[in-house]
Structure formats: structure tokens, C-alpha cells
Write a structure and sequence with these properties.
Radius of gyration: 15 Å
CATH class: Alpha Beta
CATH topology: Rossmann fold
CATH architecture: 3-Layer(aba) Sandwich
Number of domains: 1
Shape: globular
Strand order of the largest sheet: 2-3-4-1-5-7-6
Largest sheet: 7 strands, mixed
Number of strands: 7
Order of helices and strands: EHEEEHEEHEHHH
Helix content: 25-40%
Strand content: 15-25%
Amino acid sequence: MKVIVGLGNPGRKYEETRHNLGFKAIDKISDKWSIPVQQNKFRALVGEGRIESERILLVKPQTYMNLSGESVSEVLSFYKLTPDDLLVVHDDLDLPVGKLRLREKGSAGGNNGLKSIIQHLGTQEFKRIKIGIGRPEPGRSVSDYVLQVFSPSDREVVEQAVEQAAEAAVKWTGIPFLQVMNEYNQVRS
């Protein structure tokens, strides 16, 4: 089984914000592969299904971004999985808007959702797909920035990036992550 987690904040208030790109990627996978993400378990909305021959669990933690690790650790523990079976999709301030970057491991880079996952799993060694949201203008609060919606001019490029992130996550279910990284980090970004 492989677990794909999208990070975000629950509730309509946050649906279209910069911080919810992970949730949006999970929704794309859910729609395309007919895996409803509606079951409330592990303090998350989850959906279990198959992509080709691989059993998949799609996860949208409902603990709010800063406590995402609580939910993710419960999922891995319940299914007796390791961080090697985990892929996390999230927004990233250090990438330009709409740019993708895939990594096999790394620090939290200021993302509190990743900090929580690292803390609860006790490792930085899990796969991630980062979707760039850019940085706020100097003097603007980062926390306010990530909870705002995209400008109309950024919306189209962000939608394409979310689509590519979902596509890359699905590819990982059938081929090694290094191959997916090579394709998406070089060709598409």
C-alpha cells in the first residue's frame, strides 16, 4: 500500500488558499481514479482504492496544517507502513508560483505541516511534491499570505501545477520515485 497525503486546512474558509494545494492535488487524484476521500478516520478524510495494481490511501488531514503529523503517524501506524510508503504533497514558499519540485527527503523548510510530520515520524526521509506559491512582499506576514487566495493572474499556472503534482503522485504508484523526480524536476519545471 502507498499513502499519498495532501496538506491543507479543513473548512470552506481555507478551500482556495495558497496553503491548500496539497488538498487540491488529492482531490484531482480522487476524481480521476474514482477514489472518494470521504471517510473520517485518523483525524483525516481518507479514501482507499487502487491505481492500476497498487493499493492506495489518499489522505487529507483535518488537524489543520500545524498538526498534520498527528494524522499521518496514525495512518502509518495503523497500516504498519514505513515512511518509504509515504508521499506528501504541499505548498512551498521558496519556489516561484506554479513551479514543482520533487524531493526524496529534506528539512521542513519553514512549512509547519512538514515540521509536524518530521516530529511525529522521527525522520525527514519521506517523499514530497512541493508546489510553489512564492513569497509575500517584504513586510507582509507569511501566515497571512499562505491563507490568502491566489490572484487571478496566478490561478491558471497554479491549477496546472496542481494537475502535474497529482499526475506525478500517480506515477509514483507504478514506478520508482527517482524516475518520477527525474521526469518532473527536469522536463516540467
